[in-house]
Prior knowledge:
Blueprint: H1 3-18, H2 30-35, E1 46-53, E2 59-61, E3 69-71, H3 73-86, E4 90-96, H4 115-126, E5 131-134, E6 149-151, E7 154-156, H5 157-174, E8 178-179, H6 188-198, E9 205-212, H7 219-224, H8 246-258, E10 262-266, H9 272-282, E11 286-290, H10 292-303, H11 309-322, E12 327-330, H12 333-341
Parallel strand pairs: 1-3, 1-4, 1-12, 4-5, 5-8, 8-9, 9-10, 10-11, 11-12
Antiparallel strand pairs: 2-3, 6-7
Helix pairs in contact: 3-4, 5-6, 8-9, 10-11
Keywords: Heme biosynthesis, Lyase, Magnesium, Metal-binding, Porphyrin biosynthesis
Pathway: Porphyrin-containing compound metabolism; protoporphyrin-IX biosynthesis; coproporphyrinogen-III from 5-aminolevulinate: step 1/4
Protein name: Delta-aminolevulinic acid dehydratase
Amino acid sequence: MDKQAQDAFDRANVDRITGHRRMRRHRKADWSRRLVRENRLTVDDLIWPIFLVDGTDTSEPVDAMPGVFRLTVDRAAEEARRAANLGIPLIATFPNIAMERRDETGSHILDPDNLVNRATRAIKEAVPEIGVMTDVALDPFTTHGHDGILRDGIIVNDETVAQAAEAAVNQADAGADIIAPSEMMDGRVGAIREALDAAGHQDVAIMAYTTKFASAYYGPYREAIGTGGLLKGDKKSYYVDPANGEECLREAELDVQEGADSLMVKPGLPYLDICWRLKQEFGLPVFAYQVSGEYAMMKAAGANGWIDEEKVMLESLLSFKRAGCDGILTYFAPRVAELLAKGV
């Protein structure tokens, strides 16, 4: 059989097998791939987590997170301006509190003039159009590195919730647009909602860390906020077991009932299934936190030439969109925004 006859035979055979359905028709050119693309990553999907430190005109590198810095309040305001110019809609702040201000109960979180609140005021004054999200977890404020108040070796739930609600009001007073409670105490979303409303902050939203897992991916973050060497024991008595999925739905149902405006999954990539389930079950905005360990692994592999860091970064973020997320907290946010502005 000559080549022309062989080609005709092969085509006929494939047509018979596929029923003339050729999936590659839409893949043949850039224009056709763009035409049928199901998910897109845009700058509107990005939330940029930044770290804060006391002082002035200083940026301290975080060794475990190349390209990430702890910023003094003035520098944070400058970076917020850069973020706004790039089109990033929201930043999230996390403080590295000086050790002399930490104690067993994390009481400094209640200071209206603490580092978080000063940064919020400075950012909103410098860049009023950008959103600011703050956390009420106590780990940056305690001497033991736990997210709640530690008494006799136990994280006490109700006392922690009361303190978180009071801190949330202070943060809203300073100008926070979203309170994102990450300490995983029972009842904290409802308590914060009631406290915010009573203080006249009905327009301040709550993004609940609905499923914050007892994960091994948080190490570099703990270095960034200065709790890495402080933690006594682990956080398994209040974070979600990584083995559990149904429990996440029960957590989310409670958060929704208590008044959460949106739901967050943390970490991100290992829990894409949870992102999808929450979106399908509740229909609220769902966000994922691409945490420090995820970031550090990509940076390390990229630096060693084992992966194309830029392509893997973008592919990983797109996976969150495919899993139903409305946005992603990522330390890559400014770099991604720059690439998207260039049409990458």
